[in-house]
Structure formats: structure tokens, C-alpha cells
Amino acid sequence: MKDIHDRGYKKLFSNLEIFRQLITAFVRASWVKDLDFSKCELLKESFVSERYQNTFKDLIYKIPLHGRELHIVILLEFKATSYRFVALQMLGYMVDFYRQLVESGKGLKKLPPVFPIMLYRGKRRWTAPVSFATLIEGHELLGKHALRFAYFPIIANAFSKEELLKIGNIVSTLFLAEVHYDTVLVRRELMAVFDKTTDKQAIALLLNWFKQILLHGRIDEADYKALEHIYHDRKEVAMMLDEAIKKEKKQFYNQGMEKGMEKGMEKGMEKIARLMLARGEPLEKIKSYTGLSADAIKKLKAKIWQH
User: Fold this and answer.
1) 60 beta partners
2) What are the b/e assignments for 19-29, b being 16+ CB within 10 Å?
3) Residue ranges per structural domain of the chain
4) pTM value?
5) Is the predicted pLDDT of residue 25 greater than 80, yes or no?
6) Is residue 131 a contact partner of residue 147, using CB atoms and an 8 Å limit?
7) How far are the Cα atoms of 102, 140, 201, 275, 303 from residue 64, in angstroms, in the given order?
8) Cα–Cα–Cα angle for 168, 171, 177, rounded to 5 degrees
9) What does the alpha-carbon distance between residue 35 and residue 76 come to, in Å, rounded to a whole number?
């Protein structure tokens, strides 16, 4: 099982799109909307000390926030059960992280802000305190001199099936499969996330995760084959659709240039929208491809149904 965690989860969350979906969907903080994911960078360094290598694996992202570089640390928890003093372990990690930055010889005057995330996907309920102060008896007696630290927990099994279905992205599909495995639901969600996720490499990583848990006997081979079929089928359809849309765009753009009219372009976009509606593509995707308004697309859809 440890091999799954090391190679599977860390590889999944090393993908920038999957990381973005994790932060935007599961971190409820006002500053998340201001993160510049276009300049996000995954650092190669690891700051997990030798004593914690069997406990954590870390992923460190550097991302601009309000003109500063914010470091977001994701610590993947390998224990099958909650550990009461995990806040102490995470505080030790943070101290190691900052110490190595200071000793790097870069002449820092101030340390960068770091947001620590504990990602736990075990079956048992997570009961460990989030705040380090909770672990210290009488900490309130020290006032401002008391040591304060808290990590941000993302606990997969704390989310209900309904909550995960509402989120509807790669990470929620991963959690859904981990905690509330239902063949029909997972198939449906895989189709949905494929259609609305432009980074198909991220989808491929999710499918590879399913393959890994198949090899460890956690899902049936028939279930995995069904998921694999969905992936390859949607991929083929998406490639065909993209090619058709590119062809239509080029054709009608040239027509528009030759005639010097915008009407040719508009008709071309309507034709693309009809093609996408016939494929069952979602409204937002059609808008992004064609530039047509939601009302215009709905009118086209109504005309198609009339015929």
C-alpha cells in the first residue's frame, strides 16, 4: 500500500492542473481566488527529514499571490489511522523548511509565507488536533508568547458523496473512488471530468491511479476495463471534435477575410456550435470554443430539437 501512496498520489498531485483543482475546490480561503496559477511552479526539493520519511511525502509549489511568492506545501499522510501529535510533526517539517531556506546562502531578510496542507485519504476518521496549541496544556497562560501553529486538513473521508459530486473535478472523483466507491458513479464522473478538463494528461494520471488500485486488488478488473474504455472512447471523440472545429474555424475565418464580413464568421461559429451540441458538449465549453452567447446556443439547441 505504501507503494501506491508514494508513486500514485505524489504523481497525481505533481500535475499542475490537479493541484489547481485541489486548491480551488478544497481550500476555502479568500486569497485562493487571487493565486496566479499561470506562474505556478513545482519545486524539486524535499524538506522531509529522515525521521519523517515513513510518515510524509511532500510536494512544494511556489505561486504568486499579491506580488509575493507563496509556498504551498502538501504533505501526504501515509498512516492508516489518525496520529494525535501530527501537528507537532508538521511544525517540525515547517521549521526544517525555513531553516534550509535561511542556510541556502541567499541572504534572505524575511521568510516566504507557507501554507501547509495535510492530505489524508485513510479509511478511519481523522481526529488529530489541527492546532498545535491544543496539544499544550495551559498554552493560554502564556498569552502572546504561546506557540501557535495550525495546518490545513483535507480529509478525503470527511466529504459526503453529495459534496464530491457537486464539486465534480478530478480530485473529487479521486476521493469519490477512494471513499464512496460506486462503479456507476465513478464511470459517470470520469466522463464528465474528461469533457470539461482541457489537460488530458491529468485525466490519464487519474486512469493510471485506477490501474494501480486494480493491481492491488482494490477494484475489479471489469470495473477498470469499463473506465479504460470510457477514457479511450472520450479521447477519440475529443480528438475528432477538435480537428473538425479547427477545420471549420479556419474555413470560415478565411471566408470572413475574403468577404470582409463578420457574418461568415458568425455562421461558421454556429455550425461549430451545432456540431458540439450534437456531440452532447456542455454549454460552457461551446461558449469558449465559439464565442457565442449562452442565449444564442440555447436557441440553436431548440432548433435542433424541433427538427
Assistant:
1) 73
2) bbbbbebbeee
3) 2-160, 234-306
4) 0.69
5) yes
6) no
7) 20, 35, 24, 39, 46
8) 85
9) 22
Which of 12-21, 49-58, 78-87, 232-241 is modeled with the greatest confidence?
Answer: 12-21
Q: Evaluate whether 129 touches 83 at the Cβ level (below 8 Å).
A: no
Instruction: Retrieve residue 52's grid coordinates.
Output: 519523517
* Residue 95: HSE in the Cβ half-sphere, 13 Å Cα cutoff: 9
**CA angle, 216 as apex, 213 and 219 as ends, to 5°?**
50
CA distance 196 to 274: 18
pLDDT (tens digit, 9 = 90+) per residue, 167-197? Answer: 989 899 888 888 887 777 777 787 788 777 7
Residue showing cell 546562502? 105
DSSP string, 106-133: S--SSPPPEEEEEEE--SSPP-S-SBGG
Helices of type H across 197-281: 200-215, 221-259, 262-278
Cell numbers linked to 126: 481523522
d(CA 207, CA 201): 10
Contact yes or no for 138/118 (Cβ under 8 A): no
Cell numbers at 202, concatenated: 491529468
Contacts of 268 by beta carbon, 8 Å cutoff, 6+ apart: 248, 249, 251, 252, 253, 255, 256
CA distance readout (Å), 267 to 40, 174, 240? 38, 40, 21
Strand partners, 117: 74, 152
Q: Which of 84, 114, 85, 100 is nearest to 48 (CA)?
A: 100
Closest CA to 175 of 33, 277, 297, 26: 26
Asked if 56 and 77 touch (Cβ cutoff 8 Å), the reply is: yes
3-state secondary structure of 150: strand
